[in-house]
What we know:
transmembrane; transmembrane helix
Amino acid sequence: xxxxxxxxxxxxxxxxxxxxxxxxxxxxxxxxxxxxxxxxxxxxxxxxxxxxxxxxxxxxxxxxxxxxxxxxxxxxxxxxxxxxxxxxx
Length: 89
């Protein structure tokens, strides 16, 4: 196994993690920003007003993108498991 192959495998795994986390976190950040602007405009300082919409958006993203996320993880592991003999030898 060459160092270049190891670096490629690790970079692929890191990019996969970044992609999967971004799908879940970015919509929550956008909703949190919108709620924060609304709270600043109306001077409402309720903690649940900022927490519940972000939680709901994150759960909806898990529901809608969960199949795609699972498929991407399965593709990466299938690639790794099928190519392990060639990578080692």
